[in-house]
């Protein structure tokens, strides 16, 4: 296979068209009218070129739930979505709370080769929220873990959270908190609002998220450490993060595509495809998230790609699993909610879906500019295309996309991982 | 009428009044030598109960049998923790048996909705109580009981008192009574009113004594003692003192005011024995009316080639 | 037929019933809703004026016993009103407005079967338009109206239609009858 690619006439970050020459895994030249002998030509006419996307929040399910997703299938979905790096969440079985498990996931990612897999280490042993996991061992392992999270569960014990924030400073780590006060959300099913009362589904109050975020911002400031807030879903959370940032504290936050688009009205169908943690919120919350993402209060878009086998979604709402797919639709949802609405330009998208997440994850080889000398992690995206989401066409093993049948803008045409196409013509290369 | 009865909110005023007038006709059946009508001969009705409720099951069973339907009782009990029998597999089984209607009681809110809309079965689905969501036939029998005692419900004041938060009866009653023109006041300690109840289009009050003198109907809801452990109220004694209906409070009611309870009652908790057994109490009548109302619902859903047409929907379909 | 014709026909039926029954004792007039009910009441009133005491009147809805129940959307029930002592041992006169296929009367006989055991059942109709599909005939007929199947017979009664009349209309659609024809 050719190791030299010449991408012609792609609009870098949505700007003017230029050619990009890719040789031996790196971008060697960017400019007009480039040529290179023997290079494979990729027509970029009309396509937006972005740095390869980086997801801070992916559930690959392996080891343990290979019926829902494997590292191989999950990273295929990632590549098709334009991602060149994903952070694999720790809530596997066994939990990624030791160097052994994180190295296994990291190795599986390398073998699959569709995108880089950076395991997230659990904060506490078995996600039990009782004792710290061996964070240092995971940081020092071949997987080089920098992001630690009990995602799926909240590190609700304030002392434990404080210690974790302190401890990861030794290796420049970050604690990514799943902000959910457990007592306030016992058996909670959907956003607490008028609708939860009417539908008879136990409410999940915004305050259960906001109270933890506020506490953790204060803790992070107190111990002068880095906090990352997972899947911010409420207007109040955006306010708190904005306030923390205004203080100069080292707090970053992510929002998920589904929280930028869907509201709790979806629960009216009682279709658990819309059951997710944190829950879909109100239209006002959606507006606040979009505004927060636009003004930089929310630093990144993370997918919280959460595959579940059919039987865990084809049942009563109360009995169903939380979570929805996200990797293959994330960029389209961001286009629909942020770009097409005028809230963000493509440079802004690149920053929130590549540069910033790479920075938070301390990934040196990702989230770099599309410039000579940089690693050739590139996604070519046709923003003018539209497609109707067909769940049976996902590369993911699971089918639980909330967008089935919806017409979404945009299509990933090609993804390059260190100069090698993982996706070409919209198909896995 | 729609094909399914999932929520009291599915009923237009015409639908609801058609059910009440039909129930009025069917109620007289109880006084006849042969308590049987042929309307649902050859129809199969399945009582699908994922949660125990002998009263509701028997009421639906009697209703279906009096209309000559074949009745199959299917108990698929499973707690919300151990998922138990899969709703989908059960639905497919019932479909294979050729059920014309499925009367479903389920611990999960929305389960009847799923059964009706997931494409697993073609049967009509009647919600016989789902989680903390709704219990539309209970609301219909309550409205029927009120209607028999008070006539037209327009402008009538109905106080629904107790654990509204966890009550499917309260939700369905609030929807149906509004449709029928009544003014509903939900009375409970603030902890037992749902978040966002302001959007329901009903009044709320924390003060039972302020509401009683104006009420035409007082409906007491069951309050489980265990709620005390989740801090919904401090003690049973304090709850009873503030929200229980006793003889002293009953004395403040208007002469025509009736007292209702969907059962099962906890005497001494939300209602005292002297109130439950008083002349105002129509609690036993509610049970009788339950059969007539459920007959009406089953007849109007299954008696013809399709559910009865609403007056204003006639010609549309 | 106009209002006077209707009244004369009902008077005659009343007299025929009395004659056949040898008086008003043990009689129960059961009207079939909707228009059979006021007809039964009017006949009862005429009998009462002749005999000097009231005759029992009731109504019998046959909706659930119809053989075409499953051919249309579920129909609203109409009033069934049976005296508290039932129909056992009584002479029941079923009253309806138009006798056509005979299917309504069959349904009424079935319905009565679930109510008890009358001594005898008779049938009174305001109009017999022929075209029977079952072996049923009326004992008391206000008027025989030979019609073609494409024609429609409409009975108007003051209780529903502000006038008493029996009209025959042709096939034209805008000449629609005010009530649904007896089902065939």
Walk me through what this model shows.
The complex is a heterotrimer of chains A (429), B (317) and C (184). By secondary structure, chain A is α/β, with parallel strands linked by helices. Chain A is built from 11 helices and 19 strands. Chain A has helices at 71-80, 99-112, 135-140, 158-167, 194-199, 206-223, 235-246, 257-261, 283-295, 330-339, 346-360; strands at residues 4-12, 17-23, 26-31, 40-43, 48-51, 53-58, 83-88, 116-119, 147-148, 174-177, 190-191, 203-204, 227-229, 251-255, 300-301, 378-388, 407-417, 420-424, 427-428. In chain A, strands 1, 2, 3, 4, 5, 16, 17, 18 and 19 form a 9-stranded mixed beta sheet that branches. A 5-stranded parallel beta sheet of chain A has the order 9-10-13-14-15. Chain A has a 3-stranded parallel beta sheet with strand order 6-7-8. In chain A, strand 13, helix 7 (235-246) and strand 14 form a beta-alpha-beta unit. In chain A, helix 4 (158-167) crosses helix 6 and helix 6 runs parallel beside helix 7 (235-246). Chain B has 317 residues and is α/β, with parallel strands linked by helices. Chain B has 2 domains: 8-135 and 287-310, Aspartate/ornithine carbamoyltransferase (Rossmann fold); 136-283, 3-Layer(aba) Sandwich (Rossmann fold), CATH 3.40.50. Helices cover 36% and strands 14% of the residues of chain B. Chain B has a 5-stranded parallel beta sheet with strand order 7-6-5-8-9. Residues 312-317 of chain B have low confidence and may be disordered. Chain C is of the alpha/beta class and 184 residues long. Chain C has a single domain (3-69, 77-146), classed as Rossmann fold (3-Layer(aba) Sandwich). Helix content of chain C is 27%, strand content 23%. A 5-stranded parallel beta sheet of chain C has the order 2-1-3-4-5, with helices on both faces. In chain C, helix 2 links the parallel strand 1 (27-31) and strand 2 (56-59). Chain C is globular and about 45 Å long. The chains are: A alpha/beta (429), B alpha/beta (317), C alpha/beta (184). The interface between A and B is medium-sized, with 24 and 29 residues.
